[in-house]
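Team,

Forwarding the record for the chain on the shared tracking sheet. I've put the sequence and predicted structure together so nobody has to dig through attachments.
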Amino acid sequence: MTVEKQLRWGVLSTSSIARAQVIPAINRCPNNRVTAIASRDFARGQEVAAQFGIDNVFRDYQTLLDEAEIDVLYIPLPNALHEEWAIKAAKKGIPVLCEKPLSTDAESARRIVKEFEEAGVTLMEAFMYRFHPLHKRVKELVAEGVIGELREVRAHLSTNRMAAPSGDNIVLKPELGGGVLLDAGCYPVNVCRWMFDSEPRRVTALQDIDPRYKVDVTTSAILEFEDGKIGLVTSSHRAGGISFYTLIGTHGTIEVPRGFLPGWGDVVDEPLIIITDGRTTERRQEVVPAPSQYELMVQAFSNSVLEGSPVVFSPADAVASLAVIDAIVASAASGRVEPVKST
């Protein structure tokens, strides 16, 4: 179905992810354009608006919602602010693309989803990596039985934010939903659930809490799925440049060396899949085309809004990931195995 209407986007904040990736991606997508942005620092908002050709700048988020002529809203605010502003948008009937994670915990995410369902408004979590064809190919290989039965997923995403920590960095502010688990650890958690196509039952976890900032700077967890299958996840703000996942099956392995951030920054190498036959030790590689996963995400959301069709990855999936994250936090605090609570 071809829809010619152009979507006018509003953006809440001038965050780094908005400037570096999502605003450019929106403006590159057919039928999409950012026409309004709000910033608590009005001068900063004007600067970003000039950079990207955004027509309207607002001094605060509420004024944008009240006055801007927009069709959809992108929310790249700190995690702890997602619920407030997503729900305000839902009440105004504005579809929302909300940065991952959808909120700070599963209960908050459920409240968000409930508001959008009752309003009949489109909501999607901005988990950009899931739209890259790299992962579709990985799932095809698993379905084809290339590595036998999938038994284990190992995933790691780390960025060394502690190399030069700053009190102004939102990921180091607990009151804003900071910490490495919500910032980066949500990716390894998500890919384990996605590759197994199921939910873990129980979790065992450890966290290193920085005494200065009171947030987790390293989190590791074991996710226990049905039939003894496991996911091993790690994320850290004390290690840098790590972005991989590995699938281990009864006959071999699939390695994805840049699983979550292919093409990020100055990385120009094409995303690879490395397949090893455990019976013969034979290794082969596949190169997957490297489109912008941000553009693919924006276009998918845009299509859902314009066509009135369901989003590719449902809001319920975002809630389920946060339920696992809740269990990880609980296990690290209690020192015990903790169940994943689905409701």
